[in-house]
Amino acid sequence: METISETAFAVPGPDGADHLEGESFATMLGRWAGLLGDEVAVTFLDYRGSAEGRAVTLSWRELDDRVSGVAARLRGPARPGERAAILTAQSADYVVAFLGAVRAGLVAVPLFPPSLPGHAGRLAATLADCAPKVVLTTTDLAGELAGFLGPLDLEATILSVDTVEPAAAGEHDWHRPAPDELAYLQYTSGSTRSPAGVMLTHHNVLTNARQACAAYGAETGSTSTVSWLPLFHDMGLILGLGAPMVGGLASVLMDPIAFLERPGRWLRALSASPGAISAAPNFAYSYSASRVPEEEKSYLELSRVVSLINGSEPVLPATIAKFQDAFGDCGLRPEVHRASYGLAEATVLVSVTDAGAPSRQVGFDRDRLAEGAAVPAGPGAPVTTLVSCGLPAQQEVRIGDPDSGEPVPDGQVGEIQVIGANVGQGYWRRPRESAATFGAGYLATGDLGVRFEGELYMTGRLKDLVIVDGRNHYPQDIEQTVESHPTVRPHSAAVFAIPHDKGETAVAVLERAKAVEADLAAAAHALRAAVSAEHGLRLHDVVVLPPGEVPRTSSGKISRALCRKSYLDGVLTGRRLG
């Protein structure tokens, strides 16, 4: 079998002057269709009509033919360089739509249907920003989509990709993009601002997909990617579509709702996919460990899993241990856990821990870390344990002073800065923000981190720091203290700062645990006391919400920014115990 090495599938250099001029995910698909033919390329595990699911598969040749059919239909309504929005549910059709747009020379915009709960406003703002000439969807969504698009005054053609006939194999004069042409716009969450589209070129995304294949240990013909992450998310797109196109890997997909309903479905898919590579946010590992019953574990065989990527902020050591304890008897090896760091502005992947050994964990002195110095905790000192994000994946990472941008010494906390061929070109139609984030040579990530003994550790988001009375607090540390109380539902707390008469003050929003009867006022008092004793911080307000009501992103992660906005807007419906 062929391993994706540093030299395999080389992508164009910055000047585009090598033999892969004109390459894209779609041209890679054509190459693998010729080599792998009738082998399965994409499997979508569809649980919408059955609890046991139905596998919908496309071979490499079938996928290539369907993509060509869509690309041919797009030649009329749109010209190369114009935008094509993908508003399709998670499915094999999503893969066809995205690659069809790319093959036609359009700039793909991976999005989601209007029916995604709580995100209609974000979708409308995104469509207004990117102004697509064509919208790709499926027949079952076309009517709903037409009604949604009507008031937006968009001049866009709607095409249902599931009705398009595959194109017969043969010679086609497809657009051959230059390396610096845009492949797609990856829109950020928009939780603290209107959505911003990261401009990613074919060179950017081919580079990062290749970096991911090499870092995660992908092998053509023996590796599958298994993902329930949404395809409109940066990691979901590269893991579920980009890396398979570059590496000739089989892709197994399912809907996020299918995972949330029964997380064992994800574990079963890993078991059925030899050489599986997968990724999930931190909460999903803990959720799976808690929700997969013992009788279901007897059907799991996880010894052939290659890599399980955790790119959350933060990656919690307790979560890794809980997941390993839950599934170690199913053959899961500790060394497959791969802590990672990335962001949409760098396509996705920036750094990852080495294969073959568990991720390194270091207990730092919490007070010194808040002051900006990474110092291992001595006896009796308060501890913040961080999980290493490993080493850069064929790119350069440094730590810079958040104010001046200048590099800081190892062991000093600062802003993570990245430079590499995978870093995007800026934000679509946002020159001022692009200059601030991308314009100084290095990508200014807005993330805080530290280089300690050669490895990268992420400490938090610069904008999420809780600064009270001149002292820095990392919100994840306070959230772990809050969630240690039995009244609080695990992985449900958000701590953030709000303006106050004398500067800033801290607020905690949380969900009460299911089936727990408690005096909420007494619980809030206990939480305040614990946070005060552990962190020297007084909580201005504690808001208790019913289970499932804390604002989250579309991938299920708690959004501190959305919580803060909802709190300040007065729309949180929980009980305030301030």
TrEMBL record:
Highest rank taxon of the organism:
Bacteria
One GO BP annotation is: Actinobacterium-type cell wall biogenesis
Gene Ontology molecular function: any one? ligase activity
Q: Which GO terms describe its cellular component?
A: plasma membrane
- Asked if the record carries the keyword Lipid metabolism, the reply is yes
The AMP-binding enzyme C-terminal domain extends over 464-572
Query: Where in the numbering of this chain does the AMP-dependent synthetase/ligase domain appear?
Result: 37-428
Q: Does the keyword Nucleus apply?
A: no
Keywords for this protein:
Fatty acid metabolism, Ligase, Lipid metabolism
Family listed: Belongs to the ATP-dependent AMP-binding enzyme family.
Protein's recorded name: Acyl-CoA synthetase (AMP-forming)/AMP-acid ligase II
> What species is given as this protein's source?
Amycolatopsis jiangsuensis
